[in-house]
Amino acid sequence: SFYYGTFPAGFLWGVGSSAYQTEGAWDRDGKGPSIWDDFTHKKGKVLGNETGDAACDGYYKVKDDIQLLKELKVNHYLFSISWPRIMPTGIKTEQLNEKGIQFYNDTINSLLENNIVPIVSLYHWDLPQVLQEKYGGWQNISMINYFTDYANLCFEKFGDRVKHWITFSNPWAVAEKGYETGEHAPGLKLGGCGAYKAAHHIIKTHAKVWHSYNNTWRSEQQGMVGISLTSAWGEPVDPHSQPDREAAERYIQFHLGWFANPIYKGDYPEVMKNYVGRKSAQQGLGTSRLPTFSVQEKTYIKGTSDFLGIGHFTTRYVLQKSFPFLQVSSYHTDHDLAELVDPKWPAQGPKWLYSVPWGFRRLLNFIKTQYGNPLIYVTENGVSDKAEGTPLCDEWRMEYLKGYINEILKALNDGVNVRGYTAWSLLDKFEWNQGFSERFGFYHVDFKNKNKPRYPKASVDYYKKIISANGFPNSREVQNWHRKAMDTCSTTHQLLATDSLIAHVEIVTEIVLPTVFTLCTLTSVVLLIFYLRNN
């Protein structure tokens, strides 16, 4: 049931994005290549062979996009720094890119001038390509020191103004999609080992960066360092079945617990160690494919988060499913479970993102119970649609936001310590291996137009009302928000249609007319030559 009420005073409302997905300018002003530049330039890796080379042209539109943030009336903006933009090879001693550093300085200053708090992620997946080629990226322990050097440079250059730092955004996807399935950059399929090894190095890196901030920068800068973990909720298919309940628990531990458990408790979840260890032994391996932390490392890693960032999009039903002994190992068969969805759950866009708001409250309560009720910022939550047409009247996004934000309100009443919410995302943008086929934005971006204009969807007006009211005051008011938001989008649709027509006319003017003129000129010359020859 829907709960009408408001959030505590001082609750932070924001919106987010990431560097590779929006900035573009992939090789401009001294930026080095990232693994995503390399990956997308290979045919067949991304739907439609699209790339983020230009993306939303965010590199050139900072001032414009900050105006959109002002229009949304958000308190904060979560964005990521591109490591190769400020350190082209990823190695501090080799080269720094002053133009890249200036770009982020200007962005941070512009945000603060407009009373918008910057929340900065140091890593949203765009590893410098040089580090991948030289060392194998996150498979190599040397990444710990290279990343710490990069993080310290960011603290040095921006830490006087940035007080909320995220070390890694969704490291689960970095490890599993980058080094297990190969769906994401760097595209490696190191089944059963690659993801665990990458995650192991990422967790150690996170801890070292936290300690570095704690020892060197905290007393002067007074900021916070956390990590952003993305996880769906796993609900047992049959809540009365012990095997299904255990399978649902494993689902959460193999996603969220994989990273949260070491940070909050000092080691991997017991169930992960048991399952991966047993499967490794069945394969005749001398040691587990899941690496181990030494006693000193466990102590060093435990407690290294001032807040926990949570990304959450959807829920799955989970049941026990035993996989037979396989010679080929895989993260996906290690946890002995199967995932199901309810066909009645709404799914507007991609088939992985079903709207199941009640799962969010359960996930937040799980975190409260498991990890000692840590300070939580919701760092990613939103829904996408497919790119067909121009869906500015995004009623399903408003319903999604209403449902999921309401579950946070219920979780707050349960005693969960949530301080802020970041909707995902500000703009339609490059969606990794799905290219531009999925759109998460509050603002529609016309990628066919060379100027990449932005148009507000109905959800802009709706989210703005939630922020202004700091929640959901009463039924009548919330229904009014919905009606007014739908009214505004029809006007914007007309504007978009007019602009598209103008852009089409401009293309005709810029390309077709000069071509026709050239052909006419050539034809005239040829006819003139014939005429002169004949006479």
TrEMBL record:
EC code(s) of this entry: 3.2.1.21, 3.2.1.45, 3.2.1.46
Keyword Transmembrane: yes
Keywords: Glycosidase, Hydrolase, Membrane, Transmembrane, Transmembrane helix
Active-site residues, record numbering mapped to chain: 380 (nucleophile)
Biological process, per Gene Ontology: carbohydrate catabolic process
SUPFAM superfamilies registered for this protein in UniProt: (Trans)glycosidases (SSF51445)
Presence of the UniProt keyword Transmembrane helix in the record: yes
Gene3D superfamilies: Glycosidases
Name of one Pfam family that matches: Glyco_hydro_1
Reaction equations catalysed: beta-D-galactosyl-(1<->1')-N-octadecanoylsphing-4-enine + H2O = N-octadecanoylsphing-4-enine + D-galactose; a beta-D-galactosyl-(1<->1')-N-acylsphing-4-enine + H2O = an N-acylsphing-4-enine + D-galactose; beta-D-galactosyl-(1<->1)-sphing-4-enine + H2O = sphing-4-enine + D-galactose; a beta-D-glucosyl-(1<->1')-N-acylsphing-4-enine + H2O = an N-acylsphing-4-enine + D-glucose
Record-level Gene Ontology MF annotations: beta-glucosidase activity; galactosylceramidase activity; glucosylceramidase activity
Residue stretches spanning the membrane: 511-532
InterPro entries with a match to the protein in the record: GH (IPR017853), GH_1_N_CS (IPR033132), Glyco_hydro_1 (IPR001360), Glyco_hydro_1_AS (IPR018120)
Family: Belongs to the glycosyl hydrolase 1 family. Klotho subfamily.
Protein name, as recorded: Cytosolic beta-glucosidase
Provenance organism: Jacana jacana
